[in-house]
Amino acid sequence: MNSINCPYPLISGKDNEVTLRSQFLKEKCRLTLIGDYHATLDDERGTPFKQYSARMAQWGHCDMQELEMLFNKAFQDGSDAIILLGDMLSFPTERGVETLAGMMKDSPIPVLFTAGNHDWHYEGMPGSDMQKRQEWISKRLLPLYGGHDPMNYAFELKGIKILMVDNSIYQLTPSQLAFCRKELSDGKPALVGCHIPLYLGLPYHTVVNYGCGNPGWNGANDPYFEIERRERWAEEGQSAETFAFCCEIQESENVLGIVAGHTHTYCLETFNNKFQLVVSSLRSATLTMFNN
Ligand SMILES: [Fe+2]
Q1: In angstroms, what is the span from residue 229 Cα to ligand 1's centroid?
Q2: What is the mean pLDDT of the chain?
Q3: Which CATH code is given to the segment(s) 19-290?
Q4: CA dist 25 → 97, 158, 171, 189 (Å)
Q5: In which band, very low, low, confident or very high, does the pLDDT at 6 lie, cut at 50, 70 and 90?
Q6: What is the DSSP-derived secondary structure letter of residue 25?
Q7: How many A from CA of 88 to the centre of ligand 1?
Q8: What is the pTM (predicted TM-score) of this model?
Q9: What is the 227 CA–ligand 1 centroid distance (Å)?
Q10: How many angstroms does the Cα of residue 197 sit away from the middle of ligand 1?
């Protein structure tokens, strides 16, 4: 590919294949992005939890065959890593976690995972979302993180720092904001991976209702808390740290873009010479980043 010598990143997307060209990158890096697979794998160990999993067990994938095909395709297509963007499971069964962890371990390329709001959620169990996330990550999901901190970790690949940040309760904690600030302070090109897309808040944007950092997110506007049998969103809305995170990611000079899932619908938007790519639940997406 000839050099374009453009001082700004060039971002384009077609058919779930997104390309970024930037003079700030050292070499080509290709990622396969997968979100919202919603596996419902279970066995007799899940029987005591049926009252909490029955609704979500009606949909999604009852096996991992399609996901295995996507893993194989990623390797064959020359991807350098696979990024799993949450809700790979519809609820945290032991069989589901064991199967996915085994696939990740067997993959010839790195597989990074961050949780979605369903990965850790047994509907109707008591406790706040924050408590239940911590409880079920500890009890079940830990094998999916490869020893990394489930709340946030950085993975460097071909000169790009991939920041995996758990925003599966829509909000960020003060320690997650501090982590992001520290990791972004070295000026290395960075990509943010999280489950819930960021509210961009720009008037020309086609999607204005993304959940993380959305000023309209509050208890009065929570459409699903009864259906999902979870705590209602906070009356007062999201934390100051969540708004700070969204603003700083959008303004940080070294952030290349954001990759996310949750809505099940592909969407590519650009802002401030960056992008937000939201992946479809029906197929994987690729992100290929070139050094101009
Ligand atoms: Fe989700």
Answers
A1: 15
A2: 95
A3: 3.60.21.10
A4: 35, 9, 30, 7
A5: low
A6: -
A7: 9
A8: 0.96
A9: 14
A10: 10
Q: Reading across the β-sheet that carries 111-113, which strands appear in turn?
A: 10-14, 17-21, 285-290, 29-34, 81-84, 111-113
Q: How far is the CA of 186 from the centre of ligand 1 (A)?
A: 31
pLDDT at 3: 46
Note residues around ion ligand 1 (Cβ under 5 angstroms): 87, 116-117, 262
Residue 161 has pLDDT above 50, yes or no: yes
Give dist(CA 179, CA 247) in Å, integer: 15
CA of 196 to the centre of ligand 1 (A): 7
Domain boundaries, the chain: 19-290
d(CA 201, CA 207): 9
198 Cα to the center of ligand 1, angstroms? 13
pLDDT per residue over 40-99, tens digit each?
999 999 999 999 999 999 999 999 999 999 999 999 999 999 999 999 999 999 999 999
Distance 192 CA to ligand 1 centre (A): 17
Q: What is the pLDDT of residue 5?
A: 59
**Per-residue DSSP letters for 193-255?**
E-SSPBP---TT-S----SBT-TT-SGGG-SSTTTTTSPPPPTT-S-HHHHHHHHHHHH-TTE
pLDDT at 2 over 80: no
**What's the gap in Å between 86 CA and the centre of ligand 1?**
7
Cβ atoms of 265 and 278 closer than 8 Å: yes
Q: Measure the CA angle with vertex 256, ends 251 and 262; round to 5°.
A: 90
**Strands annotated E in 73-198:** 81-84, 111-113, 152-157, 160-165, 190-193
- If we measure between CA atoms, which residue out of 9, 162, 4, 148 comes closest to residue 79? 162
- Distance from Cα 119 to the centre of ligand 1, integer Å: 9
**157 Cα: distance to centroid of ligand 1 (angstroms):** 26
